[in-house]
């Protein structure tokens, strides 16, 4: 049994409030257990300089935590004058993941800015950010379709993320909370699409290692969890969920 | 009649949710119309270097906006690598205002960090921050009193803030929303205590000026509004409200 | 009696040397008691990006202190790599104040850079900066009129600033020197025009508060002091003083 | 056939020059095809503040590229005044990987600084850095053992890294060069120990996804390649290679 | 004849006002032609960390220009957030030069901060800074001797600086003004002591070169000029001038 | 006898490997004793903004040290977020020196970026950088001539640099190694052309001074050493050496 009485393969309660903030084109408050992240998607009608004139768009993400999202107050990155390595790693991950399921050629010369602001943290903030950001992005495109400034949903598939890990006792577990995360020997973040293809696997043994078998067990747990999470995304999106994939372009690397 | 049908001397709806975030000692989500600010108060058991060994405490504030709190997305200050002049001005104001009603000698060598994070902006974010931060600070001290790490509430009086201004038509109005604020010729932020003494007056004519009579009318509106706001703070704080002032030290500058 | 034998409503000796530095279009060394500030106004033939193409100009101010302007040497802001909150607050104040009496539509797409460099400080550096900067700006425009690159003085009214405050004994006083400033319970900076309209009121009780009556007394002292200061500006400007107001546009917020 | 005539499961030529720079305790120039990295390990007799007094050590890594290591000159990060997200991600990865095979309790309160400076880049700079840095660290500890300032080699196992990926045609390949890397749909960096346990898996589909089967194929390629690379490390280290593992502590997360 | 009618070997008019600013221990306004620099020397009763516990002192210099010291306004270095290469070069030069004539062992664990702020520039600002800073430092030590916090003047010799150069027509000239400086092919700054020993020679051909003979001619001009400048320093210092050298320690590098 | 058994007028062994790195247009690894510097020259087909439209080119240099180039590890400047004064001084020197022998009018609107990265330091890194950078620049232009994108070698003369100094015993010596440099009383860097004209003289007495005679002796040593170094450059450049000077423009400042 885990410290919050979950089974090794149980997710924490997940909950998404759409249109949480009024200004952004897409806005979601996602709660995964005690982790709460505001995910806002903003559409800007231009692309960064290195992409101009190519007729395609871009998606970029920023991630931040309120200083007191955590048990001890953290110094604000704006006060320190620079963004930490951890923050950069996370925002690069979120952007990359979202780009894998959006057909950038279909969104025109626009930038989608995704802001993930953690207001309360209890483990899994980066994976909750991806899961919530996906919904915010679909909402934003949905609003453009409603406004007739876009024809079809340029999102090719669902996208969600969760964590798996190995505890000190050797148990592989799904969806680590903060206490589990700080004790785990291995921590792995997995991002998958609705067709259960991998987008990103980041597994790390901090002062520890893991075997091939452990890897397989963790992948199994992640797949189970992500199916459930994507189900939740579909519920939250309602009608809009049906538009995901309508412009599906074949970009899976597979084939052979 | 104003753009949201209020009278010139009407406040917007105000609403405070206490214990909004679980980690901070004091946490409040304040809503003033469509302006929403998370105010968190954290107690740290040390003071900044310049105050060590004096047996007294310190209160400092930080203020920030989510990039999409506003209609157009703003660049994150952590990305720019520096805090803007506007942000600094606001956080200095919040800290100064709070210090005026807290007896720093009574809190020991502790720092109270107040974080005001605007998640949605519609004018008056700095005054909403002060009003909400005051409640968060009282909650934080209340928690210390419950935990017996403090004897008496070191807060000497209530504290709240609002804005007043002059519209282009010459009307003096109370509690400006964003649209009013951007059209106003004069904008004045006023911070007062529960005994209706002034803590801070910041009146500014941006490319305009104002007369002695206009100033008097604005002061009158502010006084009326702040009495109502402090009433709300008392309701929200419940029992704790009665402890405010229990260590009242005479520090009014008056006397003659 | 005050620490330098002045009456509560007496200004310190004020003195302005025009054309102090040879390169700037307008240059003034202002001395208010032992406070000395070099105020230089530079005209640049372009405006910042956010104003291009609107046919109007801009005024911006920068403020700095020599490291040893004060009793103890301060670290240079260029060495620290960032400008302090206090400096930003002051330079925003100076710029805003000047813009309130200059008709930006009349100066074309030009930027007026105002540099206020405090070479010796004894209290009231920000108000001395405003008073001196106003003269420097008029001189700069005067030079343009002489050079026929401008037709009329775009300055609509005189502008000056001073401080008032409340001492620990409850006395309201005019034009605080450094020693008074560091002991005062309330410190208020007031900027007014030649027609005795307010441009800016910034009153602050640092760990103290002030009453309605005290506010009224301070306003009275400021009004008296500013009339005298504007008289000095007129003397220093000589002939040019008569051109101030020649393009007066009605922008007072008043009316009702 | 690949662009440089390798088989899909062939490594590029690997080559390590020990004692390349004279000052560092451990120094290696590693060449993997046309990628050349100077890996220096420096021992400092203190640990960062957050670790003091715990009697254990720390390993940290920094990574950089000469501006003209690449085909087009890059702006120096010292000129930009900040380290890019990519650099931070890489140096965090290198440090984490090395810490997984060093028993930090056995090195005393010392910090091992590992500097990986890419002087010529042709793909795989981060994995070459890990492979070379491992050798530099063993050399540095070896020097301490020779100098009798350390008793036993605190390195518990070998450590090496390589990349695998999926080309546009669906081929899974080992050890991508720059041209392959820029065309690949999936890019995965894998770090393993001498006992073929995983330390880190970072697989990324940039605007693409990959299946479970593709993942398995890539893992197989990586395992094969890493066995060969570790053989090279053993040759280069000679006698010292036998000391790796002499203090082996059981920290594999496995067990069940 | 030169553009200001001087002979090739004539200095511009030099003028030093002592005690120009009231707070610093030593303060001089030096004017060399139209170049005006405020040189302030501050004594701090501690040394930088790397010198603690050695019983000797340190001298360091900072150099800055008002934005409008020059014909076109320069961006403030505090706004840019960093000090330029030119500024760093100059402040390192000033500090090094002063240290060559001060016996750091005789000043105890104190730091002398020398601030050279150029308020008006017309060429030769760095050499004027050295000449003025020397006088400010002697004044500061003089004040300490008067206050009995120091026994003897720790300054071993006089110190002054000037520039020489080669014009396009091949003329070698002394003490270049701004116009000459911007046209010169060779620019050389020379710092010498009262005993006519060299402290620093910095000769530069910007897109040009110079011969051995030209070098000799320039050295001759500099020597002549520096003798005259040191005469002025002696006049300005009056009585104090006699104390310079009273602790003369032999540190000339010569001997053979 | 010197600490490495050289005569006072002997250079250390010098060695240049051309085409050391494959990407840059010109690349040299220079070794001067134990000092090793990678000098890369990159040609970019544009000039900095301040030079656009003038039809001429620019040469700029950057200098850096690997953290462990020295006996003790230095903090990376990219980590510190700023470039030190020493680094700026050196890169300004290198750029200036190279510009003195390149006819910028002949290279079109191109920028030559010269990167000098010290991988191992033992004194004289800045002079080795200049000597090596010169060769890299000639190689880069040579490649352009081969590719017919340039007609004639725009380099007007050879260029090399070395150091001279005065030891504590009064000996003047040539080409100081690190140990000598840290003990020397006077340190002088001299840059000369193939026609033995001076480009730069930077002589510094750190807490010491030097006489006219010592200066003459040092100049003599430098001249001897630089003749030998330029001989080496000619050998290394082979055929290309003959093209140096083919567009020689008379820019020596001499003549009278």
From TrEMBL, chains A, B, C, D, E, F:
Alphabetical list of CDD domains matching this protein: RNase_PH_bact
InterPro entries: ExoRNase_PH_dom1, ExoRNase_PH_dom2, ExoRNase_PH_dom2_sf, PNPase/RNase_PH_dom_sf, Ribosomal_Su5_D2-typ_SF, RNase_PH, RNase_PH_bac-type, RNase_PH_CS
Binding site for phosphate: 86, 124-126
EC number: 2.7.7.56
Entry-linked Pfam families: RNase_PH, RNase_PH_C
GO biological process, alphabetically ordered: rRNA 3'-end processing; rRNA catabolic process; tRNA processing
Keyword entries, A-Z: Nucleotidyltransferase, RNA-binding, rRNA processing, Transferase, tRNA processing, tRNA-binding
Catalytic activity, as annotated: tRNA(n+1) + phosphate = tRNA(n) + a ribonucleoside 5'-diphosphate
Record keyword tRNA processing present: yes
MF terms in GO: 3'-5'-RNA exonuclease activity; tRNA binding; tRNA nucleotidyltransferase activity
Domain Exoribonuclease phosphorolytic: 11-139, 158-225
Complex and partners: Homohexameric ring arranged as a trimer of dimers.
Protein task: Phosphorolytic 3'-5' exoribonuclease that plays an important role in tRNA 3'-end maturation. Removes nucleotide residues following the 3'-CCA terminus of tRNAs; can also add nucleotides to the ends of RNA molecules by using nucleoside diphosphates as substrates, but this may not be physiologically important. Probably plays a role in initiation of 16S rRNA degradation (leading to ribosome degradation) during starvation.
NCBIfam families per UniProt: RNasePH
Family to which the UniProt record says this protein belongs: Belongs to the RNase PH family.
Protein name: Ribonuclease PH
Lineage: Bacteria, Bacillati, Bacillota, Bacilli, Bacillales
């Amino acid at each position: 049994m885990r410290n919050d009485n979950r089974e090794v393969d149980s997710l924490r309660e997940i909950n998404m409030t759409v249109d949480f903030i009024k200004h952004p084109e897409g806005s979601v408050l996602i709660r995964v257990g005690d982790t709460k992240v505001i995910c806002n998607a903003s559409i800007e009608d231009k692309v960064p300089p290195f992409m101009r004139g190519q007729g395609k768009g871009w998606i970029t993400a920023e991630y931040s935590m309120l200083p007191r999202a955590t048990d001890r107050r953290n110094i604000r990155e704006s006060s320190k004058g620079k963004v930490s390595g951890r923050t950069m790693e996370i925002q690069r991950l979120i952007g990359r993941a979202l780009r894998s399921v959006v057909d950038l050629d279909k969104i025109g010369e626009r930038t989608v800015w995704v802001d993930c602001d953690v207001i309360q943290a209890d483990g899994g903030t980066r994976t909750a950010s991806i899961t919530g950001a996906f919904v915010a992005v679909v909402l934003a495109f949905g609003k453009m379709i409603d406004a007739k400034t876009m024809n079809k949903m340029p999102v090719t598939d669902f996208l969600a993320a969760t964590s798996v890990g190995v505890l000190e006792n050797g148990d592989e577990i799904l969806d680590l909370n903060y206490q589990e995360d700080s004790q785990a020997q291995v921590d792995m973040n997995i991002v998958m699409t609705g067709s259960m293809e991998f987008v990103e696997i980041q597994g790390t043994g901090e002062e520890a290692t893991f075997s091939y078998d452990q890897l397989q067990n963790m992948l199994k747990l992640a797949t189970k969890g992500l199916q459930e999470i994507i189900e939740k995304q579909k519920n939250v999106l309602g009608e809009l969920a049906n538009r995901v994939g309508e412009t599906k372009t074949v970009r899976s690397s597979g084939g052979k």
